[in-house]
Amino acid sequence: MVTNYQESIGSTCNNHEKLQQSLPIQEELPDAFASTNDRPFRSDRGSKGKGGFGLRVFSPRRLWFHTFGIAIACLLATNLTGCTTVSNYLGFWQKQRELKKEFQEKPSVQALRELRPEDSYLLVGPVTMNEEYRKPILVVAVTDRFKKREVVATRILQPPVQFYQAYLPEGDYDLYFFADLDGNGYFEAHEMIGRTSGKSIILTANAVKDGLTVEGPPFTLNLANPGSTDLPIKVEAKTHPYIFSSLDDPFFDDKYGTMGLWDPKAFMAHTQRFLFSLQEFDPDKTMVLFVHGVDGTPRNFKYLVDGLDKNRFQPWFYYYPSGVPLQKVGSLLADLMSIGTTTTYFQVKRLIVVAHSMGGLVALSGLNELCQNGTPPYLKGYISFNSPYGGVKGAQKGIENAPAVVHSWRDVAPQSTFLERLYEGKATASIPFYLFFGYETGESSDGTITLQSQLEPRIHFNAYKSYGFNTTHVGILNSDSARQTFYRTLDTLTKKP
Length: 497
Prior knowledge:
- This protein has 16 helices and 20 strands.
- It has helices at 16-22, 60-77, 83-105, 109-115, 254-262, 264-271, 302-306, 326-337, 359-370, 393-401, 407-412, 417-423, 427-430, 451-454, 457-460, 480-493, and strands spanning 41-43, 56-58, 120-129, 137-143, 150-157, 163-169, 171-178, 186-188, 192-195, 201-203, 213-215, 219-221, 234-236, 275-277, 286-291, 313-318, 351-356, 379-385, 433-439, 465-470.
- The chain has a seven-stranded mixed sheet with strand order 14-16-15-17-18-19-20, with helices on both faces. Strands 4, 5, 7, 9 and 10 form a five-stranded antiparallel sheet that branches.
- Helix 5 crosses helix 6 (264-271).
- The longest helix has 23 residues, at 83-105.
């Protein structure tokens, strides 16, 4: 799996059996298309005749395959092809239908959060403890909106715990905190070390400061005198490391990039955090922060990372679900990049951001936010590879015609609100910006993203330098000439004046 909008269809469905296996429903029609007594469905397209008045008549089963055809056409339009992708999309479509049905029958805030992630926000607040504790903490968000004491979100906070986070829709919430005090490997109801006191926390869109974050109240956690709750809490107390010895670790497997596109909730359960590294943080080295693209993982940068001078540069990776609204993950990236000014553990002296494909949109969104009130002194530069700054035309077709839409498609469609906001930002004019683009001989694209989109004037004209390479969309990350140019650019950005 690669961070790109188009996998060559090369390995196409070779027979009808494979196509049938990719369908989420084979014998029974989806509920949305079922009709009493198998009544026909009329389309407004087709020839005059048996259907009358120029209407084409479909049976419900034929309607299912007609709609399936539209879905496949949308995937082709958005340059997402191949049997595996078709199967993933159909699974996504089926899950969206099931969630809508579940919400209609038994509404819950959990289902609402999955159906409309664009209307959820990150509640963040400071945490202090009455004694030193270097183990994970569990935070649980609870509401009474649809049913009494619904557990909406659980998140394991990894040490050192300085902040809590919970991704929630608008509403009133109580937070509960737990520690595995008896060491049995689980957070349990009798190990409550803190909770909301007094009034519930009210989360509203009006309180959002950056399109994502809402400031929550501070909590002091009492490890010496734990309490108990009747909430049904029993969560495995896993420690999720942020340091890995290699990008070959299974944690960065391509399947998780695919998961991040089609099932962001499962992806975040896998990662539990967003920043990862190959070494302990070293403030004396330049932090190079890599941002992958759609369907991608940090492993996509392996060739570039392997040749880095590790005595001078320290690679870090923003590992995020690429199916969520890009403004959300851009705002989160901005918060993470500003961490050097808000914590004592990470004191960043020099930071360079490197992004590929859609990751360039995410990175630039975060940089624009970070530079709103001036450029941080530690921010030394931004380098992007083959990013669709002008958008992807096929995404608009997917939005208009697909039966279920991946949220990030809306942001990469040309002239989207997200892109228009991106052009208004100050980052590319405020920091050294190097634009790498790719093309194939005789073509006006890198095989995935057009040159027109990669070289969108409102972004391109702010680049300090631009470099073009005769290579494909993904091939640029494995190109020796691009790699050597990248290393020279890093040297330039870190030269002492």
